[in-house]
Amino acid sequence: MQYERLSDFAGKGSYLLFDFPLYTKIKINTMPETTEETEILDYNEEGIPSIVHHMNFIENRDVRYLKMLVTQEKNFYYYCPFCERKLQIIENGFKLKKELTESNITTYSYMFMSEEFEEYDKHAAKDSVKRFEELIKHIFDDKRTLKMDFECTSKDKHKFYVIFQLTDDNYLMKTGQYPSILDFDNTLKEYQKVLKEKEITRELTKAQILKTHSMGVGAFLYLRRIFEKIIFEKYEQAKLENNIDEQLFREAVTKDKVKILHEKGYLPIYLVEINPFIYDILSKGVHQLCERECNLHYDTLRQAILLILEEKMEMDQKGKLRKNTKNELNKIHTKLSQ
Ligand SMILES: [Zn+2]
Are residues 104 and 171 in the same domain? Predict the structure, then answer.
């Protein structure tokens, strides 16, 4: 999912509020949009209808989404970092002046399009700028900042808040939140229970901290390191088990290293499945992409790494269990053969 303009967050409001990185600019387009309806007025003697078209100029979907985000009374199911569980989170919503709630700017009705349309078009463009200015004056303070307060519905009523800044060129930017993005991230907590490798947990946390501060390139670097560590660890295991051509492996590029290890059965299937592109994307992030692009794609890549780690863990556990069981069977066999 790409998050470039505010309406991209439609249906994902809680992600924007609590998990989206700070200081990442989100465009609010203020240009009006149009929708068209047709109406049949009557039919002439030959049964041909006279049709009138209504072209509605409405506020841009980014502006409509902003209004909804700020004004709607909220009650949604989400993770509370204090309760350490999911429950209903509430927010009262900002009461908007009645004249600002309307999204329709003007309607141009016509049977045959004429130059009148341009008048309407110009008027709508001008009016939407004016209306947007009025709206932000109403919902943001004089420094163009906005604070939203939330509360969890446990008996302790834990308080959260989020602060937004609107830049002069109409980008929305989250500049603060409490609790932090890291506190809201319970996936890592879940994985920590099973992630034995402390170093990987540390690197995942570091990646997450960098993402929180919109330093996507650095965050990518940590994800790539984890990816490389998994490959290296499996190579070491294969070496120990005398099951790999070391020279061939060392000389291969990463993609082929994955293939070699896969053929020997050392890698999680998911890693092999996404092998054609994951390392390329991570490397591109480190060498070519800008911070903004890395920030936009970070969550998907992190999810991929977590899925690999999860599968690897299961593989390791199963491997250990197999080995132990085999040893036990061996002992039993020896004993019974005596
Ligand atoms: Zn709570």
Answer: yes
